[in-house]
Amino acid sequence: MLVRERMISQGKRISADLPIKTAIEAYDKMDSPWLPVVDSEGTLVGLLTKADIKKAKITLEETETGDQEYLVQDFMTKKFLVVNENTPIEEAVRMMIDYDFDEMPVVKDSYFSGVITQKIMLRVLMEITGARRQGVRLMVEVENKTGELLRLMQTISDNKGNVQGFCTYCAPKDEYVIVTIRVEGVDKYTLKQAVKNLGQKVIDIR
Q: Which of these three, 124, 155, 186, is where a domain ends?
């Protein structure tokens, strides 16, 4: 899954040469931590953040009316991180977590094209785990070596199970991995016994 498949195509953007007073009015009406700033060709050249707006308001208060017309480019943040439309979704998640971002701008060939948000990431997690699907939710501790995951999947298939969601987590011990699977077509008692017969530990099943 790539960022372009889940991003929001953001329509609101402002020009770098827009008067800052106009930009402040636009920002105050937005429910977003920043506004994308583009040049005349649509290239993303900056972000107008909450901190930038605060600085601009202070500057305007301290400047006598008519002395100078400040522009967005005078206050915008010029160093920022972006993700590309073709960035894998898990890489975008890693960046947002590592840098504690609620939202990140998305570009295509340096042109602003949209936004990826934490809310979107939660929806992706829901899709991956099959949270909206019916069936049995199975958590298994699997030995982290070649063939063990294949054995688990084959056992599910042999018992008429159909996997609707799948994800893995790091286990407390490096030699194991926690696997969460959503399975349709088999009852939990049959599935639990089949997994136990493999010698794999069922952590939770419901």
A: 124
In angstroms and rounded to an integer, the radius of gyration of the C-alpha atoms of the chain is 24
Q: What element of type H or E holds 149?
A: helix 148-158
d(CA 103, CA 3): 13
CA atoms within 13 A on the CB side of 159: 22
At residue 17, the 3 state secondary structure works out as coil
Single out the residue in 57, 90, 124 at which a domain terminates.
124
In the DSSP assignment, the letter for residue 29 is: T
CATH of the domain at 40: 3.10.580.10
3 state SS of 28: helix
Structural domain boundaries enclosing 26: 3-124
Which residue from 192, 91, 99 is spatially nearest to 138, judged by alpha carbons?
A: 192
CA atoms within 13 A on the CB side of 58: 7
Per-residue pLDDT reduced to its tens digit, 28-57: 888 788 999 999 888 999 999 999 999 999
pLDDT at 115: 93
Q: What is the CATH number of the domain that holds 200?
A: 3.30.70.260
